[in-house]
UniProtKB/TrEMBL annotation:
Residues 52-213 form the TLDc domain. It comes from the Eukaryota. This is TLDc domain-containing protein. InterPro entries: TLDc_dom. GO terms for cellular component: nucleus. GO terms for biological process: regulation of transcription by RNA polymerase II; response to oxidative stress. Pfam families: TLD (PF07534).
Length: 213
């Protein structure tokens, strides 16, 4: 067949199209109503409980910044101050059997929402733990994430009287007290973050911890 085409007395005009060009041509839509963007095609992750803190825009922003290994997973609520009371010991007890990453959400009395993704669940520890997947985030006034700076590995450390995230040469990136009523947030070397709340010493309205199934 190839020989017969090449030997025609009046050869047709042939266009060579690369694989990349072909794929690009197939993705072009004739009208906007026919085509959906990649963002529109994506669906929000499923949550197995109602959240007191999370709204749709919170979920959408956080889902896009989670590590690949938990993307697409169902979000499972394992601790909530609204359901389980305000106690760091209770938080530790509720997460004791989890061997997966966790998402810590905080809402302060000024309705600021912020928190952290931790590569490991929260527990009482003799030293800092976690990996470079861990990051801090805030929604006030716009969504920002603060990833590992590489300067130190002070990701998470749990005490009976406090939970600490980030540190080195000064205050913590995020600190919560034993009753989960008060906390603080400052710039730290671990994440090179801005304070997560305009009120660096804040009063807590609600705390939630989610994991991924």
């Amino acid at each position: 067949m190839i020989d017969s085409l090449l030997c025609e007395s009046s050869p047709k005009n042939w266009e060579i199209i690369t694989v990349r060009k072909s794929a690009r041509s197939q993705s072009v839509c004739s009208t906007p109503s026919v085509c959906m963007s990649e963002d529109e095609e994506e669906t929000l992750p499923a949550l197995n409980h109602t959240s007191y803190i999370l709204q749709e825009h919170h979920i959408e922003s956080l889902a896009a910044h989670l590590p690949p290994r938990v993307q697409g997973c169902v979000w499972d609520l394992v601790y909530s101050t609204v359901q389980h009371g305000t106690s760091l010991r209770t938080l530790y007890r509720k997460t004791a059997q989890i061997e997966r990453p966790v998402l810590l959400l905080i809402k302060d009395l000024h309705n600021q929402v912020f928190g952290a993704f931790s590569s490991h669940t929260f527990r009482v520890s003799d030293s800092c733990y976690g990996t470079g997947e861990t990051f801090l985030f805030t929604f006030g006034p716009e969504f920002k994430t603060f990833c590992w700076s590489g300067e130190n590995s002070y990701f998470v450390r749990g005490f009976l009287d406090s939970l600490q995230m980030g540190g080195g040469g000064g205050p913590f990136g995020l600190w919560l007290d034993a009753d989960l009523c008060r906390g603080s947030t400052f710039s730290c070397n671990t994440f090179r973050n801005q304070p997560l709340s305009p009120h660096q010493d804040f009063t807590i309205q609600a705390v939630e911890v989610w994991t991924f199934q």
